[in-house]
Predict the structure.
Amino acid sequence: MSDNYDVIVIGAGHNGLVCANILAKKNRKVLICEARENCGGLLEESITNFVPQIPLSVSSSLGGLTVKYKAKSSIALSESGQHIRLVGNQHIDHKVISGFSSKDADRYVEFHDKMSSFSKALGSFMMASPPRIMNNTFSDYFKLFKLGMNVRMLGKKKFNEFARMVGLNIADELEDNFENTLLQGLIAHDAVLGSNLGPRSPGSLINLLFRMATHDNSIFGGIYEIDGGSKAFVDTLLDISNKNKVEIKTSSSVKRCITENDKAVGVELHNGEKIYAKKIISNADPRSTYFSLLGTENLDTDVKRRIKHHRSKGKVAKLSLSLNKQPEFINCDKDDLESRMVIAPSIDYIEEAFNPSKFDKLSMEPILEMKLKNSDQSNPALDIQVQYASYGAQEGWDNIKDNYVDAVIKLIEKYAPDIQSCIETKAIVTPDDIEKNFHVTGGHWHHGEIQIDQLFMLRPIPGASQYRTHLDGLYMCGAGTHPGGGLTGIPGRNAAQAILEDA
Amino acid sequence: MNRDLRFTALKKTPFHSRTSLASRTNKYYNWNGFTVPTEYSTTELEYTAARNGTSVMDLTPMCKYMINGSDANRFVDYLVTRDLSQMEDNTVAYIIWCNEDGKVMDDGTIFKFSNTKFMLCCAVKIYNWLHDSAEGFDVSCEDATDTTAALAIQGPTSCSTLKNYGADDLELLKPFGMKQYNINGYDVLISRTGFTGDLGYELWTDPANAENMWDSIMEAGKELKIRPFGMHALEMTRIEAGFIQTNTDFMAAEDSLRPVRMRSPYEIGMGWLVHLNKESYFVGKRALKKEKETGNSERCLVGLDIDGDKPAVGSVIYNEKKEDIGIVTAAMWSPTMKRNVALASLKRPYGIKIKENIFAEIYHPEELEYKKIWAKCKVVKRQFFSPERRNKVPADLYE
């Protein structure tokens, strides 16, 4: 049996593309098998409106990316028209918040500094594979020690504060600091975004820290829109792939991993075709990787248990409205419409929206993050991320989809009274749709909750946290691995490094 | 709270009406949630019956699981370390199974009825483990502990006893074979298996038939020195036979709090049950392969022949420099062999490469005083007692 390829990457999501290209640059012959017709995975549907910037270490290992980013400010919409606009600059934001409460403004700066130093301590670990706790090697202990030291080096006071906050819910911390409910709502929104948590759920604070770590260690800075949309981003990656001679096979869904002597040696496609390679890398989510590619009969019971308990219920739907004219948002100028518009007026509002989702039900008053596209052209569109749109909703998405979309539009109507008359078409992509169309179990953005039990060396599961699965020769490079999703390319890049280390 | 749930008394086995009648000592213990006799009269007498006549033991508290489904064969092969792919119908196999770290969870026996139907018997409850392991296999696992009555009939005259009971041609049944009978109008499964290291059988039936079965067998063995025997006598016979007992000779992986106390099959003398060349994967294979390749097994479980006649119960084992090298897990003076024997868990290379010059420190109580004995030991085969009649086909018959 000859190896036709050095590496086969399963899935052409952005992490798969990043990983493939780094390997191709190191003279590996790489093939990508993508189940869909197009590459880009979740990017293809622009599932997320706003993204962090690709870190320099990722783009440089790809030989530079030509993607252009536009920084976005955030605006918390208020029914009264008293919106809060924050840009991520301490001085400007201080001034803005002073307009509502001078106490809040001072507190915000303090709060931000504190959070920022914590996110830096955590973030320094983003670019390396996490220690493997079930391995007992010196380098793993050293990494763990370094993580501890990084946090400890913050100083005794801050260390104590970190220890206090790491399992805390975001609501308590915000209510301790701020009196303005709109500001509280905006920060809480970002803390729970993409997760299965409410602001009063323990652990919602570390979610925010993790988000900050990829967003320039800032709460409202480091939020970008890709110039030309996510398609431009995918095209750039495809151009690079072309240059690096990465072969891409689309419409080639992988059925399983072929093993020989308990080692991954190739893949079998659903059409029966078998392709062999020295190493196989899965960009799929952990559950699909383990249960479908690896196969339950090749897993230890303990591993099956861990994968079964892996939490990956998606909570975000994407609603796209194409408009015939630009809607009038109350008290919003042109700049405001260009920014990230958030409807999450208070912590209590978010918590109420979250409550039904605990029971896999839907709130008809969800929280929204919106982006107005082509605002100066004749075909504007509104892209809306709807949070707490539960995966596998008990109401049944097929039955309730239309009502749900109407409810969301009604909600927007409070802030843009003429929205109804502007709408041409509406399309919603629920977590169930994401699962079906993109083969992501649970339709979760991050291929699994960003929670303390699924982070660092526990991501996605103990024993498989360094991009290596339990099967020799099979790796993972998707958002389900450390440090998680969010269009950073870091998992893909770290995975490529792990593979190069093993070679 | 429901009154019945506040306190759950030990369950009685379907043989309880008979075992309690046979008990002259009223000594019971808790075996897997059931109350069963530790001894009926005296352990020595019961032991003697097991070695010279027929002994009867209520086995009902053993964990029993039915595994059914189109993938049952594949599933069982995946669950245990032994290669069962070629196992024949109506046979029984001794097995162990491990967790992902290749540490032994328990040992037991698997009964194969067909490719789609198996029964698993073991000491430790593993329903949860079976259920979670079955993910991805088309099988159903059912706990049959309460719905199957089991009786062990062991000893040189056991075959004759059972023939009198109605098990025709039983002498032709091979060791680890099993056969379905209909006796006195009910179904009984008889397997040539046991825990005494002697000729012996185990009987499996519906609990409704239990009392008739007990009475009929007692009647059938009346002239063949039949006697019920309890856990203490069984303990003696199983040590002589060199059989290991979970949580006595090694800690079940799921029961040990300290990872260093878990044992791999190679560390408890069960390496022969690990078939790494099995084509399909089995739970723990990767870890066991690694252990085998690196040879980093730390301990071993061996038989010891100890000087003197004082049983080395709980003794610490030393080398000639008086360094602690292990511990005795089970020990006895064997009345049949007239030897002082023990099972011991030793730190390698002791027991494997170094088999001489090791010592047991025995504390022997003598009327409120302990006598400390420094006894020389020799590492020997664990199977101290294995008479020819154990595996003989046709089995010995007596009148």
User: Anything to note?
Assistant: The two ends of chain B are 58 Å apart (CA to CA). Chain B touches chain A through 17 residues (CB under 8 Å).
